[in-house]
Amino acid sequence: MKNSLRASLAIFLLTLTALAQAPSIPALPATPKRPVTDEYHGVTVTDDYRWLENWDDPEVKQWSAAQNARTREYLDRLPSRPAMNPSGQANPSRRGIQKDLQKPTQLPPFLAPSPKRQNFG
After folding, report:
1. Distance CA 24, CA 26 (A)
2. pTM, full prediction
3. 108/21 Cα distance (integer angstroms)
4. Helices marked H in 44-113 — which ranges?
C-alpha cells in the first residue's frame, strides 16, 4: 500500500513538473458556429463551420490570420525549436527535397511503358 502511494505521488509530481516546463498555449480565436444543413441521399448533414470555406470573406481571412499567429506564438515558445532549426532558415531541408523532386524518376520494369501496352482499345 505504501509503495503504490509513493509511486502514485512520484508520477503525480513528475507530471506536474513536465506540465510546468511545457510552453503555455495561447487562447484560441473565437470560432462562431453558423449551421448550414444539407441533405445527401436522404441523410441530413449539418456543418457548423462551412462559412470558413469562403476564402474571399474578410472575416475568414481575419480568423485564419489569428490561427496562424497563435500557432507561430506556440511554436516559437518551444524550448527545442532552436535546436531543430539552428540555421534560422524557414525550412532548411526544403532545398534537399526540391532537388530530389527534380531528379528523373526510375519506374520499376513492370510499370515502365512498353510498346505492347500502348493500345488499350
Report:
1. 6
2. 0.49
3. 50
4. 58-77, 81-84, 94-102
pLDDT in tens, 23-47: 667 778 889 999 999 999 999 999 9
- Which of 39, 62, 59 minimizes the C-alpha distance to 51? 59
Identify which of 95, 32, 39, 27 has the alpha carbon closest to the alpha carbon of residue 60.
32
Query: What single letter denotes the amino acid at residue 7?
Result: A
CA nearest neighbour of 49 among 62, 65, 33? 33
Structural contact between residues 99 and 93, judged by C-beta atoms closer than 8 angstroms: no
Please give the angle made by the CA atoms of 4, 8 and 10, to the nearest 5 degrees.
115
Amino acid at 72: R
